[in-house]
Amino acid sequence: MENRILIIGDEILGEQGEAANRFAEILLCREANRPIQFSINAPAPQSLKQLYDRASADIIGKKAGRIIMGLGLKELKRGGNDYSGVFSLYETLANEILSKTLAPLHFITIPEDMFPMAPSQLTALNECIRGLVAKDEKRIKIMDFAAFVADFKEKQLERGKFGRSLYTEEGSPTSICNTFMALFLYDFIKKELK
Length: 194
Prior knowledge:
Elements: E1 4-9, H1 18-30, E2 37-41, H2 48-53, H3 55-58, E3 66-70, H4 73-78, H5 83-100, E4 105-108, H6 119-130, E5 140-143, H7 145-159, H8 175-193
Parallel strand pairs: 1-2, 1-3, 3-4, 4-5
Helix pairs in contact: 1-8, 5-6
């Protein structure tokens, strides 16, 4: 369905999927006359491998007109994988979706502050995610939240002080981060829907 947006994400979208739900509410409030539906799987309890195994039912079967994916953080935090192993799983899932749907795919990059134990792993993963555009430049767009957050932090440094932190010391998004992400998603999707 052209007017259905499927959102799949892990902790990047909030511990309870708060950013995804706020985004949906903002879009529904701002675009009251737009016929739109949401299917939100955030935070997705499945691993990337499980999402791939269940893709036909949980992703492809949803018949979404647009798919937003923010994944990879959970696998990095759980350990056992470095960014290349995580990206390999992510890319396999992306290839499956690309081959079996016609929906535009939007991949969210992950701010380094969400994984303070090894931010370089996120930097490398984000570069790989950005490279997914080469698979299908017409259907794939990168929602570069990592760059958006870096710009925000730079502007805060220019002010000389921080209002409120976007993340806890462990890297979990705060309430303001979830709102920030929801607004970022709304601004991006609003341009895509025109």
